[in-house]
């Protein structure tokens, strides 16, 4: 643990991921939670994401809380995600930093698009000025390298790349662009699942974990041997190919990583199912259901 004092209550959400109320020289339940490696602390998430995360943590830290984490997640999703399509755009704004030397493909692609639009705006403005007209303020301002900027994710029927869906909030408002609700729902689903994926119902049998590990090793072996995707059987071991020597080579950390990933996937399935339940009934919200 990174925190060497007493944490109580405390919740562990994964390996080296936890949060709790810190007590240093004496008990003090009025302090802010100490949070270690839990996604809520990341600056680039939307306000919606932070609100849901803070609500989950606050509820689970209440001394009088008698609800399971499952019940807390259900209650919070019922209040925050059921009407997510009506969420204020300000709560969906995300942030990112543009660095010329950083290989962030989505941000770099988005900035390339913004430069093209900004260049066109400048050319149009010059033409208007020549005619004695006053051009409109630029919509597509370019941040300085290393500067943080705001964006939202909008629908794009021509591309599913995040870099093609990123848009400045003021552009989304002015041009009436529709928010990509599926993007935000998926981030909420993944985040909520991390609070419950440790529970026994999401833990796969050891056989399933080893099967997934074997599949990964086979894929890596095929890649190492230069096997093309068309020849799926080449380089792939038979069921009994994991001999004792292979078993000794199994990385325990790799097994833990795969087990946690499978548990997370199983928990995400439950969260998606629950969100769908919220939108079934006399007035089904087919739009939300289709996103999941």
Question: Main traits of this protein?
Answer:
mainly alpha; 6 strands; 292 residues; 11% strand; 46% helix; Ribonuclease H-like motif; 3-stranded antiparallel beta sheet
Give a short synopsis of this structure.
The protein is mainly α.
Describe the structure in your own words:
- This protein is mainly alpha-helical and 292 residues long.
- The protein has three domains: 82 residues, no CATH class; 90 residues, Ribonuclease H-like motif; 93 residues, no CATH class.
- 46% of the residues lie in helices and 11% in strands.
- The strands form two sheets. Strands 1-2-3 form a three-stranded antiparallel sheet, with helices on one face.
- Strand 1 and strand 2 form a beta hairpin.
- Helix 7 crosses helix 9.
- 18% of the residues are buried.
- About 4% of the residues have low confidence.
Q: Could you tell me the radius of gyration in angstroms?
A: 24 Å
List low-pLDDT spans.
Answer: 234-245
Percentage of residues assigned to helices? 40-55%
Number of strands: 6
Distance between the termini: 36 Å
* Secondary-structure element pattern, one letter each: EEEHHEHEHEHHHHHH
Strand content: 5-15%
Q: What would the principal axes of the Cα set say about the shape? A: globular
Specify the structural class: mainly alpha
Main sheet makeup = 3 strands, antiparallel
Report strand order across the widest sheet: 1-2-3
């Amino acid at each position: 643990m990174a925190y060497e004092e007493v944490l109580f209550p405390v919740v562990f959400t994964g390996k080296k991921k936890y949060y709790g109320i810190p007590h240093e020289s004496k008990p003090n339940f009025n302090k802010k939670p100490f949070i270690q490696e839990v996604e809520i602390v990341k600056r680039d998430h939307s306000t919606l994401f932070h609100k849901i995360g803070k609500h989950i943590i606050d509820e689970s830290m209440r001394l009088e809380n008698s609800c399971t984490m499952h019940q807390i997640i259900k209650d919070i999703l019922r209040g925050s995600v059921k009407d997510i399509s009506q969420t204020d755009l300000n709560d969906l704004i995300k942030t990112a930093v543009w660095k010329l030397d950083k290989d962030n493909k989505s941000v770099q692609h988005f900035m390339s698009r913004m430069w093209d639009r900004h260049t066109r705006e400048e050319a149009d403005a010059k033409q208007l000025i020549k005619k004695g007209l006053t051009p409109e303020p630029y919509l597509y301002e370019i941040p300085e390298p290393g500067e943080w900027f705001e964006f939202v994710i909008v629908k794009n029927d021509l591309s599913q790349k995040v870099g093609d869906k990123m848009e400045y909030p003021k552009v989304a408002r002015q041009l009436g662009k529709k928010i990509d609700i599926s993007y935000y729902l998926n981030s909420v689903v993944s985040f909520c699942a991390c609070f419950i994926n440790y529970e026994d119902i999401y833990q796969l049998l050891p056989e399933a974990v080893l099967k997934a590990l074997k599949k990964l090793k086979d894929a890596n072996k095929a890649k190492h041997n230069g096997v093309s995707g068309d020849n799926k059987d080449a380089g792939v071991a038979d069921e009994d190919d994991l001999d004792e020597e292979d078993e000794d080579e199994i990385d325990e950390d790799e097994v833990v990583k795969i087990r946690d990933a499978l548990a997370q996937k199983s928990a995400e399935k439950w969260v998606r199912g629950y969100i769908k339940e919220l939108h079934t009934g006399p007035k089904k919200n087919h739009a939300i259901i289709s996103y999941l």
